[in-house]
Fold these 2 entries.
Entry 1:
Amino acid sequence: MKKVVDIDDIKPLIKDGMTLMIGGFLACGTPEKLIDLLVDMNVKELTIIANDTAFPDRGIGRLVVNGQVKKVIVSHIGTNPETGRLMNEGKMEVELCPQGTLIERIRAGGAGLGGVLTPTGVGTIVEEGKQKLNINGKEYILELPLKADISLVKGNIVDEMGNIFYKGTTRNFNPIIAFAADTVIVEADEIVNIGQLTPEEVMTPGVVVNYVIKGGE
Amino acid sequence: MIPNADLAKEIIAKRIAKELKDGQLVNLGIGLPTLVSNYVPEEVQVIFQSENGMVGMGPMPEVGMEDKNITNAGGIPVTVLPGGAFFDSSISFALIRGGHVDITVLGALEVDQEGNLANWIIPGKMVPGMGGAMDLVVGAKKVIVAMQHTSKGQPKILKKCRLPLTAKGEVNMIVTELCVLEVTEKGLILKEIYKDTTVEEIKNLTEAELIIPEDIKTMNI
């Protein structure tokens, strides 16, 4: 299977109403060229699972500003006033989830687990409506797994097998969301031939990746 | 006399820096807590964690030397020191929740005498979200709240938090520009006071009950 494709080949995969996971932490490690594509296509009613809604002019924030998002499941919206405004006007649903819980819910979704037990949020409104378990005398909240139709991942160096190497702090949610969607699309700063990344350098195995597109520097 | 905001932040950051011990792994929140890194004593080597996926975080880069691939949890370009490491968010929160972080320093909207903390939402007004704060407070071995003693003259150290909580009973220490408080099972103990204030002034600006020991120290900054 040839994984490296032109960005236009991605278009038929993306539809209104889909659930997307998008990598990045305040737009560091977010696939901006794929965000460009979503903005150009103007797909609507998206549910977005990501760490945050970034900034109005960067990363996931651009989809929010463009009115394409029905719901977000994120840990933080403070850097994008538009998210708060749309939430307060009832035009967008926001589910806030503690960051460490959010990433483990995604990991559970991608790893075939039925959920995770975490002490985070016990005694706060985060526990409302959730099952709690007492394990060895300590209380935990049962948090359920998350999955998506498509994950949009950003890699720095990606080989033709889809193997990914991440630089610096761009890794964040990317390797985890790469396991939790039916279709995984990676935007690469640089695409290299098979063998140019050593197996030891690979941080996300390409076996979970469906498509690789060339990003812009 | 209550120090002005700039001096208050300096006092708080300097005092908390003295809590850091050689070899500790430390997470500093965005804003005032970040200032703590400016005052770490030379003989103390600590490792700073940033929850977006790094240990060994260094200072801000010089202008023009920024690397867009290396940022802190506020999305601001930072540097990584020799011996540092990058990892994904799952590993980062395994460090945090798993008790591998020795100290977390973070701000507060409210804190109370039972060690409860509120710092992520003012319903109807401000909803930034909890980010990593709930995990940090639950997981770190020691939780230090860094904040100005009052907000617009109103107490922030309360008998019981009124805002939705970040975590229940997890705060160990509160450092303001006026005093250092230790959270214990008996309540808040007034350990140290700033040189220009009095126990009476602190009591007037605090809603919580304070336990006043006989040997209150002057804050050493």
Entry 2:
Amino acid sequence: MKLLTGNDLKSGAVTWWDGVQWSLHVGDAIDVGDHADTILARESAARRVNAAYAIEASKDENGVRPAHIKERIRALGPTVRPDLTLKPADPAAGQWVI
Amino acid sequence: MAEAQFRFRDDEPVGDPGVTVDSFGDQSNAAAVRLEPGDEARDLLPHLDRIRLIEINFPVYGDGRGYTAARVLREAGYTGELRAVGDVLVDQLAFMRRCGFDAFAPEVPLDPADAHAAFDRYSEVYQTAADGRAPIWAKRHG
Amino acid sequence: MGNLMYRYDTYDQATVDARVEEFRDQVRRRIDGHLTEDQFKPLRLMNGLYLQLHAYMLRVAVPYGTLSGAQMHALGDIADKYDRGYGHFTTRQNIQYNWIKLDQAPDILADLAKVEMHAIQTSGNCIRNTSSDQYAGAAADEVTDPRPYAELIRQWSTFHPEFSYLPRKFKIAVIASETDRAAMRLHDIGIQIVRNDAGELGCAFYVGGGMGRTPMIAPLIKPFVPLDQFITYAEAALRVYNRHGRRDNKYKARIKILVHELGKDEYTRQVETEFAHLLVQNIEPPLAELERIKAQFADPKFETGLSDDLDRSDPDFALWVDNNCVRHKAPGYIAVTISLKPIGGIPGDASADQMRLMAGLATQYSFDELRVTHAQNIVLPHVRKDQLYALWQALDDAGLGTANLDLVGDIIACPGLDYCSLANARSIPVAQKIGQRLAAKEQEIGELKLKISGCINACGHHHAGHIGILGVDRKGTENYQLLLGGCEGADTSLGQITGPGFDEDGIVDAVEKATELYLNTRAEGERFLDTYRRIGMAPFKEALYG
């Protein structure tokens, strides 16, 4: 599947296109199929996202998983500071990245 | 020829289109020349007395060779118009002015208020450049 | 603040204040849509604002690595107020904040300006922050304090109208002793302040060094430039680069490639021609300006008659003194390195509380002065030996008493793929695992500079590590190449790759094997680097891959 990701213009937070708006959670991301360029152009022009791009991902029973480790680190947070990730209470969250 | 949106001169603008540096040598009556980033500004030095307009092109704002070209020309005593053309953005104006540009013809016209704020932003400068402004060190030891 | 470092006058302050307002205006134009990201990017970069993996990152300049207590305190406050309670000290002697919001960035710059700091030219294709010797003003072996020269360069390079859109970034280092503690010859321009036969000070210019994907050691192009001409000489060196440096290929755009392709002699000839021309253009600040700056870096009022004796009865203290303290030029004083490399910690990170604590200790024990080192540690340059034990106890209580300067645990590591959008692999977890694996043996191993970069841009200086590690992306997984034999300093050398790379656990094993070979092979008094230079790569390859 193809996801769209970028950063929030003001906060810089990593965001994912969920079909309606930009979510902080990769699990909300939808497959944009062939519509990546259209959505990116519209959303960037409206400044609802910054420096956005399309990436490859897969989906299984555990949810959405970006193909590249860089995108998985973006989705979670720094592996060396679990307290600052999106899942601070889950000590095993870093394993998902690798 | 690109029309200047901002001009810091009182003389009549030259109406002729700038010729390339290559063809300039063959056209003994040309008064305007256009410099591209890869051109050697010093090739013009023997002819400065008959040039009234030098356009320096910035095809992309990030190519800063035009700043050196401008200063080299001013250091050699050129007093005609030095016009920045091409990808000229608000936030480059002050640097260009310091390097000796006195006319600006941005490809995409700039917001005049933003541009004038940019020209006037820094009341003090650290270096000697081509605009005659006294650097901070000169004021400290005036 | 004290009087031992450069203080802004109204001109400096006006310049920095104007920059804050300019950036506030630029951010406003970006947020309201007048600037596209493509147009805004170079503007934010010239204020050190990057878009990284998780957020915006702000890089704040620490000119030549020198901070007052009040400045360090302010850096801690910024970490709390605008970030997530910590900052990262970098190999360029700067500090980075990892979780910055765009609309707050102008306020951070305003807070910095209040303590005479800024983020000007900490990124972009311009002249970056000038780095220097972390022991400047304290070192027993310097011919003079190099920082006044670096400050003069800071002012000359700030908003330099001709050199703000260079082919690529440009880094200058200034040192003033034979022992190079600033990796001077791995900079675009390295300046060594030297004394000539007549006893006069001048500048030796080394041009065209650098790391990155094509590491090069800068050649000496001019052994002595008089002090009243060195800014002009730098201007000439930059002008030749701006005019002729390559702009067709980002990876060949640094000045090292120009110097290499033209040849040192031809590059030097062009600089000399330009220098002769510029000498009559009145661009050199008068010596009175250098003297004005020098007066502000005058030595603090060192007490006289102090004893050089230390009570070494506490073994942990004695170990720390032996590892982390170096000789000071004044009797009874010592220069102290605070390690930001606790075992298993993140190299170069400091919490807001730690920053404020170090600020307070600097005020109390070191004439209100601190330094950031290119090895990502903090130095208190002027500590009385009779107060050293009390200082150490305060540091130790705060987790800042690690005794590992220049040992294998004192690892330089870039932020890597945990934070950086350019990285191919993570650096920090590798540093943490190596530090933990070798902690028990690090005193036995002795001096071993280990440096890790998460990509070929080499922010972690892997080429210059006795052991270097380069993270690469191999078909979507992290892979690590091992290099041996790099070194910065007077005998600068570049590390050589051992062979095929390793995975994360494999690279930790490989480093351990290399250190085992060293321990089993070393001759009396040899450091790891000395043994490598004596026996060469072959035995290491055998140990690693045999």
